[in-house]
Every structure is written in structure tokens, then in C-alpha cells.
Amino acid sequence: MWNYIPHTPEDKQKMLEALGIKSVDELFEDIPKEVRMKGIYDIPGPMSEDELVKHMEGLAGKNLNLDSCACFLGAGVYDHFVPSVVDAVVSRGEFYTAYTPYQPEISQGTLQAIFEYQSMICELTGMYVTNASMYDGASAFAESAFMACTATKREKVLCSKAVNPEYRAVLRTYTRFRGVQVEEFGYEDGQVDIKDLEGKLGDEIAAVMIQSPNFFGVIEDIARIAEAAHSKGAMMIVSADPISLAMLEAPGHLGADIVTGEGQALGNQPSFGGPHFGFLAATEKLLRRMPGRIVGQTVDTQGRRGFVLTLQAREQHIRREKATSNICTNQSLCALMGAVYMVAMGKEGLKEVASLCYNKAHYTMEGLVKRGFKRAFSAPFFKEFVVLSPKPVKELNDALLKQGFIGGYDLSCHYPEIGQGWLIAVTERRTKEEIDRFVDIAGGEAL
Questions:
Q1: What does the alpha-carbon distance between residue 86 and residue 338 come to, in Å, rounded to a whole number?
Q2: Residue 200 parent element (H or E)
Q3: Dihedral in degrees, nearest 10, Cα atoms 242, 244, 248, 254
Q4: What is the spatial distance between Cα 443 and Cα 77, in angstroms, rounded to a whole number?
Q5: 3-state secondary structure of 368
């Protein structure tokens, strides 16, 4: 929003005349009078520009942020370093103000940026094709279930309980009115309980849906789970942390048919929860069943390289009730941030970030165990892990916050069977001094 809005009374009157009305109140005629606000709002009177700026800064200053606190909270959104080049590029007018490029002949820059983004996501995930991004990781995960159902002509999916609870909630919401059944299977020592999965697999299952690293930060045995799914004709869907893919084998090389995930870790600030972007990549045979947009490369009549939107016929703005998805837009600006981040970091840079996350997370875990915490699971983890706290997690987090630390996620609300489970995330931004201080405070409070 602009700090200064230059609309004069004459401008407003011209707008009303263009709309064929006499007052702003007429815009709200369709709203019943009994539910409209009557009288004057109980808010402070007008302020000068200088006063208003100071007032708003005072309100904003009440929010704790990642500049004033060291963050050990993850659970789906992470405090990774964002190079300054990301903001420099996406702040350019041709990117910052652009929406979905319906007119490819005048949107070559935006289309090329999306094409490069798609290429890099495919390389990370080991898949054949990806779309131009999704709203977020949760919606990408849910849309992948529909892809599997339409491809297999089956109406039931199996989802791991170790998947992010918010993703599972969105999955249930999406499938509720589409006739798709969702059944969950358990976990053992933080990983998929393969026996429970195999006991529930049958010829009616369209897909097995997991997350790796999962919500506990644990790395799943994707190849083994994919083998079990494929043995019953079901597809394998994996939600992945893109940073982990710089270190771990790509899910596409381990048998995944669809790979989704939240792209926030790639150059997007946490921003109090969004906006972010989701990614969805798949095998070649699922190309025409993917939701959203795909940018393709071509040549014009003079043989010059160009970019176009492809395979739009599956979307609701083209085919309505015959569409495979209702999503016909994308988070192109956030995805562009991801693309700029990946280019700026390069392969080696991404590997270094992943390595730092891995090593610092293990260093933190070892420190907490020495101070009286217990590992909840012995399975391998990436940048998040679960420890059992001797006292309520909320008390720990409250004490840490007073010392300038944002503590981990309290698992007791979603996983009461674990007990006082504390999910800690450690990214490359955490220094040794911060980690040692965090461990000392937590250890002292836990006594």
C-alpha cells in the first residue's frame, strides 16, 4: 500500500459517476440494514502523519521478531538466511507488480523466471515436471491426492500420522466433498509403521502419502514405502523440505510419483506465516493431471527462444466442471524469490546450508540430552528433532522467551501419546553461542 493516496473529492466523485451511483453508501445496499454498523466507530480521532507513523511503529514494536529473538521454532516455517539479492530482484517493477501472465507475448521475463524455477525444482525433487507453484505446501499436498485418485481411478488414500497436522487437516477439508476417503496409518520410533501401512494397503488405495523429513524431523525410508505402495498399484506421494533435498537423495529417485512441499525455506522470510508458496512435481505420465500452470519453452516463427503457458485446458477457467483442479493461479512472486535464492546459492551453497542445519541440529540435541532431556526417537533426523521435557513445554517456552529465545513446538496438542514432546528446529542461522545459551537456559528450567 502507498503511504500517500492522492484521491481528491473530485476524483471520488468521478468514480461514483462511472459506477452510476451517488454515494459510497450505495455500494453496500445489498447488505441488510440490520447488520450494518450504525453510529460512529469508537476509535481515536485523526492524527497528523508524523503522529500516525510513530503510533503504528509503537504498535509494531510490541511484536517479537526474528531480529530480536533467536528462533528454535520450525514445524513448517523456518528461519533461514535470505540473501539481499532476493529482495533486490523481486522488488523490480516488472516482477513486483506482475500477476499470472495471461499474455505470454508481453510477459517473457516473468515466464522465463517461472521456467527456470520449474527446472530447479525438478532437479531438486528428481521429477520430470513441476508446475508454476501452488498456494502453499498444504494445498499442494492435498491436490496431489486428487491427482492420484484420477490417475488410478480409486477413491481412497492412506496418509501417515507423522505428516504435518495442518497438512492433514487441509487434506481432510479438500477431500470431504470430493468423495475421497482418507485413512491414516501410524508411526513407530518416529518413522512410518510399515506393518500398519501394509495391513491397510489394498487394491482400493490410490496413494500412500508421507512427509520426509516428517513433522518430527525424522527421515523416512522412502524406497521401502514406495515399494509397498506400488505392490498394490498405489502411487507414492512425498512432501519434502527443499533444503533437505540438497543433502538427501531426491524422492523421485527413490520411487515417488509425486513430490510436494512448502517452498518458504527457499528465499522467503517467515513473515509471521506467509505468504509463501507450495511446489508440486510429478512423473511424466502425470503431466496432464497436474493442477495449476506450467510454463514451457518454444521458438517463434523466426527461431528465437520464447516461453509460453502450456496445458491450461485442465483448469476451471477453461473447462469448469471438467477441470482436474480449481487452482488456476500461482504464487509467482514468492516462487521467484525461491528461484533467485536457488540461483544465488548454487548447488554447493545449498549443500552447505543443508550441512550446517544437519550438524547444528545434532549438536543442539546432544547438548539438551546432556542437560536432562531425552530423545523421543532414535531414528535419523535432518534439522528438527523431538526431545521429551521433564516439565510442561509451555513453561519452558515462556521462560526462554523472557531471555530472547523462541522455543520449540509443543507436540502435546497433536501428539499427546508422546508426552511432553518438544520439537526443536535448528537452521544455519543459529550460532554456537546462541545454541549453547539456549541449551543452558532450557537445561536450567527443566531441573
A1: 8
A2: helix 194-200
A3: -40
A4: 25
A5: helix
Kind plus residue range of the DSSP H or E element containing 435:
helix 432-446
Percent of the chain at pLDDT > 70 equals 93
3-state secondary structure of 64: coil
Q: Higher-confidence residue: 97 or 262?
A: 262
Q: What is the DSSP string of 1-55?
A: --S-----HHHHHHHHHHHT-SSGGGGGTTS-GGGS--S---------HHHHHHH
Residues 240, 243, 249, 253: is their CA dihedral positive or negative?
positive
List the beta bridge partners of residue 207: 157, 235
Q: C-alpha distances in angstroms, 225 versus 201, 232, 313, 405, 417?
A: 11, 12, 33, 38, 24
pLDDT digits (tens, 9 = 90+) for 373-406: 999 999 999 999 999 999 999 999 999 999 999 9
pLDDT higher than threshold 60 for residue 313:
no
Strands 305-310 and 294-299: antiparallel
Are 229 and 201 contacting, i.e. CB atoms less than 8 angstroms apart? yes
Q: Is the preceding peptide bond at 275 cis, omega within 30 degrees of 0?
A: yes
Q: How far is CA 249 from the centre of its chain?
A: 20
Task: With H, G, I as helix, E, B as strand and everything else as coil, classify residue 90.
Answer: helix
Q: Is the dihedral of CA 262, 330, 342, 88 positive or negative?
A: negative
List the beta bridge partners of residue 309. Answer: 295
Residues 421/386, Cβ–Cβ less than 8 Å = yes
pLDDT tops 80 at residue 140:
yes
**Digit-coded pLDDT (tens) for 174-201:** 999 889 999 999 999 999 999 999 999 9
H or E stretch at 387:
strand 384-388
Q: Which DSSP category does 324 fall into?
A: S
Cα first-last separation, the chain: 49
Cα separation, 373 vs 439, in Å, equals 10
- The answer on pLDDT for 291 being more than 90 is no
Choose among 348, 334, 407, 381: nearest CA to 82. Answer: 334
